[in-house]
């Protein structure tokens, strides 16, 4: 995963050097192990290697993933607890029936699943997640979308490494730009304006 971080840091050096200051030092083995114990299963090896190099980003308005924060292990844990608390409180039920999502084939139709591990956040309850409990037709470790107020769940990539490679290739092709207020954003987004 080192080569992926080199590519990302090279892009930031050329286009947004201030973002380099947001990178955290690597996550400890203990913090990752603690998260795995919490969720009751192992995280994908590529994800753990990636986080051993940089533990996501510092909290800031500027995000590294299309304006979203790349969460630290501590923040992943906090987001997981937030969703789990809502699940346990019955927030995702209506008249004693589970509220279902409308997922792509390969994703379970839960509103949220404890084995959907959020690793990005827009600050409004929307995430990219690693799906460690796919439905038939899906792949363990696939990357999916999770919206707090929209039922659709989409598969973005078959694995964390595939998602990361696709994102970095898009960066290098110029599909994303740096906007001071928001960080790295897609060049066609409404967030791309002179600030």
Automatic annotation (TrEMBL):
Transmembrane segments: none annotated. Gene3D superfamilies: SMI1/KNR4-like (3.40.1580.10). It holds the Pfam family SMI1_KNR4. Residues 26-166 form the Knr4/Smi1-like domain. This is Cell wall assembly regulator SMI1. It comes from Chitinophaga polysaccharea. The lineage of its organism: Bacteria, Pseudomonadati, Bacteroidota, Chitinophagia, Chitinophagales.
């Amino acid at each position: 995963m080192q080569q992926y971080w080199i590519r990302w840091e090279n892009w930031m050096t050329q286009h947004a050097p201030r973002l380099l200051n947001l990178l955290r030092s690597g996550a400890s083995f203990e913090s990752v192990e603690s998260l795995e114990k919490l969720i009751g299963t192992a995280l994908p090896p590529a994800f753990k290697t990636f986080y051993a190099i940089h533990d996501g980003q510092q909290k800031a308005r500027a995000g590294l993933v299309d304006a979203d924060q790349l969460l630290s292990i501590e923040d992943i844990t906090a987001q997981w607890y937030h969703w789990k608390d809502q699940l346990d409180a019955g927030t995702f039920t209506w008249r004693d029936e589970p509220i279902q999502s409308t997922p792509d084939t390969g994703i379970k139709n839960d509103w949220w699943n404890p084995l959907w591990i959020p690793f990005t956040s827009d600050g409004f309850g929307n995430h990219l997640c690693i799906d460690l409990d796919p439905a038939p037709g899906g792949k363990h470790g696939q990357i999916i979308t999770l919206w707090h107020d929209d039922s659709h769940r989409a598969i973005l990539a078959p694995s964390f490494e595939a998602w990361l490679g696709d994102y970095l290739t898009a960066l290098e092709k110029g599909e994303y730009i740096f906007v001071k207020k928001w960080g790295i954003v897609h060049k066609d987004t409404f967030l791309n304006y002179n600030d």
